[in-house]
Specification:
It is a single chain. Helix 11 (298-306) packs parallel to helix 16. The radius of gyration is 31 Å and the shape is elongated. By secondary structure, it is α+β, with helices and mostly antiparallel strands. It is built from 23 helices and seven strands. 40% of the residues are buried.
């Protein structure tokens, strides 16, 4: 159940006209009052033919009129409006139950505290099965204004109690870091102008999409302007930025000027101070050219950077998060914030057929990127730099390495959700869970042809039997499920390829299982493939190129050649790429 308190208004009669009217799409049926400050003698236009909206408005506005008749500044923002809506799956609530709920909300919010005979006047109007609207005039009978500071938080807490009492769907408690929901006016304006989303939501996505492209706040704002977004800056006399606002290019006021929205109103973490801290604290410690010249593709470097999420592993492994090395959570929160940037960067450079799911993952994960814990952004510099490398990648269609990155992103998002859950961040945990679903779908799409190709060249039966023995030794508790997984032939091929490169399959399996728990994995063999592919790309520990070459030849049953310096008779590259069709020797 949600009870968002709207911005104060000044027209009681106008709001009543909406509540008792047909609605914008004829969705209002049988409007009537289910509760109020004094039901006896209350004019209800929904039940009394003689009652009028004007009469009801005057009845509610009497304390306001009396106060404004006295010397002093008149009260104009006196209309308090709070719609209360049940979840779609909740049971039907009777008028009596809605009336009780309304009384609890106005008590908790401070409109009508319990036992206060001089409280504000209010009514609750029902015009649909699943919600009511509470309207109050925020001037008390004694002429004073009610104490409404943090009334939204108190109303939200009461909703959680109501959900338990009435057996309704229980929502998580908010922490004040959620972005503001689009207003009815914003949604109707978007529909009227043919936009896919309201202006504020559109700006939110565009600003987040620009973050991986920028190294500082000036670059970010310049990028937004280059993308056609209207940006208005306010600077101090020193020339430093004081604030910024942004506007949809087609969102105009009545005077034809852009309808600028401050960054902090677009989303809490998009204010100028927040963006400055995010970008400036994440400055690279090495030259960008040196970073780009590191071995591997942007995708493999990004996967390497995701291994820096060990803080999340540590916090989750500790039964008391506050007792871990990241007691205040600032390091883990920084990594989660940077993870969102990497998902964003991947969505912009991945093949077109994957972008819809990755864009959806970016949108949902944005809620997981912010909490009341202040992030120590320097702790996630490598992950943020990896996002910038990905965004500037010349080729976004490196299929195998991109697939491995997507598999790692899935696991990282799972970890992020579990970390938020352990900290009691229910909304963020739910957002991470939704992002996981989108990332998993993108991974399934990217991996399908590669898994099929791997399965088609699976090793011979005797090699598969030996590899199955490795599985039973390395992960005995999951071996049965791994070997029964339809992806086992593909995993066997990956293990055979890795062994031909000098790796020990048993050790690879042990390490991969340690990095990603398999108990909750629906397809454990598929989960292991991505991690092993990434690990096996690195040189095998304590093995020379000659030893790897000799092992590859032995696996292929090729005739041995005299040993000697590798430079004298360089082997063809194909000799290091196993076909998977020869028996493996141990």
């Amino acid at each position: 159940m949600i009870a968002p308190i709207k911005d104060p208004g000044s027209n009681t009669r106008g709001l009543l006209a909406y509540l008792y009217g047909p609605g914008r799409h004829d969705e209002h049926h049988d409007p009537h009052i289910v509760a109020g400050f004094a039901m006896l003698g209350m004019p209800d236009p929904g039940r009394d033919e003689r009652a009028t909206l004007t009469e009801l408005a005057r009845y509610l506005d009497e304390p306001v009129k009396l106060r404004n008749s006295e010397p002093g500044k008149p009260v104009t923002d006196h209309v308090w409006h709070c719609p209360v809506r049940a979840a779609p799956e909740d049971r039907y609530l009777s008028d009596a139950e809605w009336g009780e709920i309304a009384e609890r909300i106005v008590r908790a919010a401070g409109i009508a505290p319990e036992g206060d005979d001089l409280a504000c006047r209010w009514i609750a109007v029902r015009h649909a099965d699943d919600h009511i609207h509470i309207l109050a005039t925020s001037v008390r009978e004694d002429g004073r204004r009610p104490k409404l500071h943090k009334s939204g938080e108190r109303a939200g807490a009461e909703c959680r109690e109501i959900e338990r009492n009435y057996g309704l769907r229980q929502l998580g408690t908010g922490d004040g870091t959620a972005a503001k929901r689009p207003t009815q006016g914003e949604m109707h304006k978007a529909k009227r102008l043919g936009w896919e989303q309201p202006a504020r939501a559109w700006l939110d996505e565009r600003i987040r999409a620009a973050i991986p492209h920028a190294a500082n706040i000036e670059e970010l704002l310049a990028y937004l302007q280059a993308e056609g977004i209207e940006v208005k800056l306010r600077r101090l006399p020193s020339g430093d930025l004081a604030s910024y606002s942004a506007a949809h290019p087609d969102d105009l006021k009545k005077n034809g000027q852009p309808n600028y929205i401050p960054g902090s109103k677009i989303a809490p973490d998009l204010s100028l101070p927040q963006l400055q801290a995010l970008l400036e604290d994440g400055q690279p410690e090495e030259h960008p050219t040196a970073r780009r010249n590191r071995p591997g593709t942007p995708w493999t470097r990004a996967t390497d950077a995701l291994d820096a999420l060990d803080t999340l592993h540590t916090d989750l492994a500790d039964s008391d998060p506050a007792g871990s090395g990241d007691g205040d959570g600032s390091l883990a929160q920084a990594q989660i914030t940077a993870l969102g940037e990497l998902i964003e960067a991947t969505s912009q450079t991945a093949p077109a057929e994957l972008r819809a799911e990755l864009r959806a993952a970016t949108r949902t994960f944005a809620r997981a990127q912010r909490s009341q814990i202040r992030a120590e952004h320097r702790a996630a510099a490598d992950l943020r730099h990896a996002a910038r490398d990905v965004i500037h990648a010349a080729d976004g269609k490196d299929g195998s390495t991109l697939t491995v990155l997507l598999a790692t992103l899935v696991w990282a998002a799972i970890l992020a959700g579990r970390w938020h859950q352990s900290r009691g961040h229910h909304q963020q945990a739910e957002a991470a869970s939704q992002a996981v679903q989108h990332l998993q779908t993108a991974y399934d799409q990217a991996a399908a042809p590669q898994l099929a190709a791997l399965a088609n060249r699976q090793p011979k039966e005797e090699v598969c039997n030996t590899l199955a023995s490795d599985v039973r030794s390395a992960v005995p508790e999951h071996a049965t499920r791994i070997l029964a997984d339809p992806n086992w032939p593909a995993l066997a091929t990956v293990l055979a390829d890795a062994e031909a490169s000098g790796h020990q399959p048993r050790q690879l399996l042990t390490d991969a299982a340690a990095r990603r728990e398999l108990t909750t994995a629906r397809l454990p063999a598929k989960v292991l493939i991505g991690r092993i592919q990434h690990t096996s790309r690195n040189p095998a520990p304590n093995r020379t190129a000659e030893a790897a070459l000799m092992r590859s030849r032995a696996a292929r049953a090729l005739p041995r050649q005299p040993t000697g310096p590798l430079t004298t008779t360089p082997a063809p590259i194909t000799a290091l790429q196993p076909t998977g069709n020869q028996p493996r020797r141990r």
